[in-house]
Design brief:
12 strands; alpha+beta; single chain; 406 residues; 2 domains
């Protein structure tokens, strides 16, 4: 029996029981739609993580002041004062794997402009900070190395600070008070968005680090040093060389703990990725359960169809149809139901993905691989849950089937 004959018989059977066939397809459609939507959510989350990694900058190594042990009590990060400008210059001149480097001294302060105020993170850095973070200036410019050396009261605003203090007004040339220190705005940074941990990177007030050191915090040491490695492949080697250099400069004995910490964006992103992966597994499990329920519905409906068409099966077998032909016919009908339901489900999944994007502002990505996966699931469900009803139909005795009441 060829595929044209099987299709004709299948659609004749569906036509006699339109509602039942439609409900069977709907069950599969909901399951497939859930699979497509969940895969799209997972891909969107993965893309967001990759974007967040890129937002930290190019192969950034973050050196922060470490902890100190005072009377058996460890102070935690930023407890030491041993990270200084001389360390930064040593890294710059002695480690060739580092391409850009910037000190960092930061604190949270209240910013005031006219009758507006906003509490933000003031970050003291050098001009190379923008190269490390791969951050563009969209208005005005930035401060220079001469401004750093002269403790200039200049600042560059992140997008959040700009809009909170100035709304739509051009901030270039305006003066903001940081505590009691007047600072002139020389530039506005491009939008960065949230970090992998959800922090608003645009809520930033950038100044020369010497100004923050001397005029705001009153300290001589650095809170952090940000480095950009030449490539992702040399990150580990760059970290090893930096660690050895700083241990030597800080006179740390072999086996003793460092008074600094080294981190990079990949560590943060990997932690977030692990959380997202767990969430995706949970969502995928729910989607698979939906598909399983739809498959059980297909099996139930096909078993009912076999019972109703017992007399028809007897007639076909009495005129020469083999058990293989009967089994093939019912399997094919099950696959058709699942494939049609799968097509509808793909449409449902795509629409659901768009709704999620528009309402929750969560990025989703419906990839061709997700659609192929959905088709594969549809066919697999049709084969798996259609096999038993098809096998049962092929095992009917022709004489008993002919005696079955129509």
């Amino acid at each position: 029996m060829n595929i044209v004959q099987m299709n004709r018989i299948a659609f004749r059977a569906f036509g006699r029981n339109k509602l039942r066939a439609g409900l069977a397809m709907l069950g599969i459609a909901i399951g497939i739609g859930a699979v497509v939507a969940m895969v799209a959510l997972g891909e969107g989350a993965s893309n967001r993580i990759r974007d967040r990694i890129a937002s930290y900058g190019a192969n950034v190594i973050w050196i922060e002041a470490g902890s100190v042990n005072r009377a058996g009590v460890r102070t935690g990060s930023f407890g030491t004062k041993t990270l200084v400008e001389a360390d930064l210059e040593a890294i710059r001149t002695q480690i060739s794997l580092v391409t850009f480097i910037s000190p960092q001294v930061d604190t949270n302060v209240q910013l005031i402009f006219r009758n507006q105020n906003w509490r933000s993170r003031v970050c003291g850095a050098s001009p190379e900070y923008l190269d490390v973070k791969q951050w563009d200036v969209v208005k005005g410019g930035t401060f220079t190395e001469d401004d750093v050396r002269s403790f200039a009261n200049f600042c560059v605003l992140g997008q959040t600070v700009w809009h909170k203090l100035f709304e739509d007004e051009d901030p270039i040339g305006q003066t903001i008070r940081v505590k009691n220190l007047p600072c002139r705005v020389v530039g506005v940074l491009a939008r960065k968005g949230a970090s992998a941990t959800g922090q608003d990177q645009d809520d930033l007030f950038l100044m020369p680090y010497t100004t923050v050191q001397k005029k705001i915090k009153g300290q001589t040491w650095l809170d952090d040093i940000l480095c950009s490695a030449a490539s992702a492949q040399v990150l580990d080697e760059a970290e090893r060389q930096i660690t050895e250099l700083l241990r030597q400069r800080h006179h740390i004995l072999p086996g003793a703990p460092e008074d600094f910490n080294l981190r990079h964006a990949l560590e943060i992103a990997e932690a977030v990725a692990a959380s997202v992966k767990n969430m995706n597994l949970l969502l995928a499990s729910i989607a698979v359960i939906s598909l399983l329920v739809g498959g059980i519905g297909i099996m139930n409906i096909m078993l009912v169809s076999v019972t109703e068409r017992t007399h028809e099966i007897g007639i076909r077998m009495s005129v020469g149809a083999r058990p293989f032909d009967v089994r093939q016919q019912f399997l094919w009908e099950s696959i058709i139901v699942c494939l049609v339901g799968g097509l509808v489900g793909i449409l449902i999944g795509v629409i659901a993905s768009r709704v999620i994007t528009n309402t929750l502002e969560w990025p989703v990505r419906v990839s061709p691989s997700a659609i192929l996966l959905a088709f594969g699931f549809s066919a697999t469900v049709g084969l798996f849950f259609g096999f038993y009803p098809a096998f049962k139909a092929s095992r009917l005795d022709p004489i008993d089937a002919l005696r079955h009441e129509v």
